[in-house]
Amino acid sequence: MSKIQDALQKLARARDAATVSRQYAVPATPLPAHAAGASEPDTLATGAYTADALVAAADPATQAAAAAHAAPDLGVAMDFSAAPDLGAAAQAEATARTAPAQFTPERFSTVPPARFDVPVLAPLDRSCRRHRILLEGSAGNSKLVKRNASALAAYRMLRTRILQRARAQSWTTIAVTSPAAGEGKSMTTLNLALSIARERNSNVFLLDLDMRNPSICRYLGVKPPHPLLDYFRGQCTVSDTFFSIGVENLTLAGSLTGTDQSSELLSTSLLESLFAEIREHSTRPLILIDLPPVLRNDDTLVVAPRVDALLLVLAEGDSRRDAATRSIEVLHDYNIAGIVLNRSRTTMTGDYYSP
């Protein structure tokens, strides 16, 4: 029995049936059916859990259909339970891996911007709204941000969990993938990058390496100065591809068109050169990488050994349990920073700051 299956069984024994029915991501023992005698659902219910991490983020479009009569409340299903007892040695190892880095004033002070002279491109409000990008500042998109305060809170929680692990382990490169297409990984990656940049303790670089179906520039409604694809083809330099959207401490690179030769391009040493250039010209860089779905092609496996950790995005009601299980098995040899459950229908009830 795998570590994740064992963890899920222990989680189930520790919680009442009503809670357990919302706290699974991959099958272990047979999962609760929706009604007596009903077959198990093929897609994932609310919650995402691994032996040593659980993170979740909301899709800002999810709950309008479920509660059309009410104002949108876009909370998240989130559980930061301690890791199950996996034995003293394993527990000690998990504690060492996840312990927060020791606080020093310089570690958390505001970092200077990266030393790249990049053009500033203006995102299209219409495109950001359509793709649920929580970009503050513009008049049109500020309404989306205000309406989805719970989603922003979820991304801040996700940001904190990721940064704790990154700083404890000195991670500088984190790639994001999902089992299949349409599960919200690009939206999650972009919103996470925005959230980390707002903290202003890291220089965030967002690289769209889903070269078969690049989405980041399209979601923002911008045309990059040079496609990132051109860099891997040897047609421009690294710095030529970078641009800003006016968010301090955030630099992006991506493309609008794809290629069928992505794995061949990603397998070259140009990827390491890209990382090295970023580290040379920025203070405390954190490189977030949008990768293709892990079960779709070999691109993620080409990049995975060359990054510090991976984040797996699942979508409630869309991700299949067998695909989630298979994805975790495929990525078993690499550091998994956590699992994000996107489009969660479980909300944060009440407002601590309301009178």
Notable traits:
355 residues; 7-stranded parallel β-sheet; 15 helices; 7 strands; disordered C terminus
Give a nutshell description of this structure.
The protein is of the alpha/beta class and 355 residues long.
Which structural class is indicated by helix and strand composition? alpha/beta
Question: Which bin fits the share of residues in helices?
Answer: 25-40%
CATH architecture: 3-Layer(aba) Sandwich
Largest sheet: 7 strands, parallel
Helix and strand run: HHEHHHHHEHEHHHEHHEHEHE
What does this 3D model show about the protein?
The protein has helices at residues 3-14, 17-20, 88-98, 105-108, 125-130, 139-147, 149-169, 185-199, 216-220, 228-232, 238-241, 262-266, 270-280, 299-303, 321-330, and strands at 55-56, 173-177, 203-208, 250-253, 285-290, 309-315, 336-342. The protein has 355 residues and is an alpha/beta fold. It has a single domain (48-78, 120-342), classed as Rossmann fold, CATH 3.40.50.300. It has a seven-stranded parallel sheet, sandwiched between helices. Helix 15 (321-330) links the parallel strand 6 (309-315) and strand 7. Helix 7 packs across helix 8 (185-199). It is globular. The N and C termini lie far apart (49 Å).
List the helices and strands and how they pair.
Blueprint: H1 3-14, H2 17-20, E1 55-56, H3 88-98, H4 105-108, H5 125-130, H6 139-147, H7 149-169, E2 173-177, H8 185-199, E3 203-208, H9 216-220, H10 228-232, H11 238-241, E4 250-253, H12 262-266, H13 270-280, E5 285-290, H14 299-303, E6 309-315, H15 321-330, E7 336-342
Parallel strand pairs: 1-7, 2-5, 2-6, 3-4, 3-5, 6-7
